[in-house]
Amino acid sequence: MDIIFIEYKVFPDKRDAYMSWIKSAADGDVRFELYEGSDQPGLFVEQWRGFDEDGYRSFKIRRLETGDPSWSGLADFVSGGLAKVHIWHFRRTI
């Protein structure tokens, strides 16, 4: 099973609003998990499971390039906007 990681830093003063927004944006999707850096508060990593390579490409475009209304709000919370949102795809090897 492939995994997508999305990493970004949220403005400290917008953390609570971000937490509310991300819960709504992910809308209970069972493929989604969210982690916050224990030694870097405000640094978040989203983990998404169950995407193949084509699904990843579509997902990345939707998150960063199309201005999808479900996800475009992330730019309001991230220092540097969507340009500072990093997305990686990993294939299981063993």
Describe the protein in words.
By secondary structure, this protein is an alpha+beta fold. It has a single domain (3-90), classed as 2-Layer Sandwich (Alpha-Beta Plaits), CATH 3.30.70.100. The chain has two helices and four strands, in the order βαββαβ. The chain has a four-stranded antiparallel β-sheet with strand order 2-3-1-4, covered by helices on one side. A hairpin with a 6-residue loop joins strand 2 and strand 3. The mean pLDDT is 93. This is NIPSNAP domain-containing protein.
SSE topology string? EHEEHE
| DSSP summary: helix tally | 2
CATH fold assignment:
Alpha-Beta Plaits
Give the termini separation.
Answer: 10 Å
| Assembly type | single chain
Largest sheet: 4 strands, antiparallel
Computed Rg: 13 Å
Our count of domains comes out at 1
Care to count the β-strands?
A: 4
Strand content: 25-35%
Estimate the global geometry from the Cα principal axes: globular
Low-confidence stretches: none
Helix share bin: 25-40%
Organism: Paenibacillus oceani
Protein name: NIPSNAP domain-containing protein
Topology:
Blueprint lengths: L2 E7 L5 H12 L5 E5 L6 E7 L3 H12 L21 E5 L4
Antiparallel strand pairs: 1-3, 1-4, 2-3
Offer a concise description of the structure:
The protein has helices spanning 15-26, 53-64; strands spanning 3-9, 32-36, 43-49, 86-90.
Keywords:
single chain, 94 residues, alpha+beta, Alpha-Beta Plaits, NIPSNAP domain-containing protein
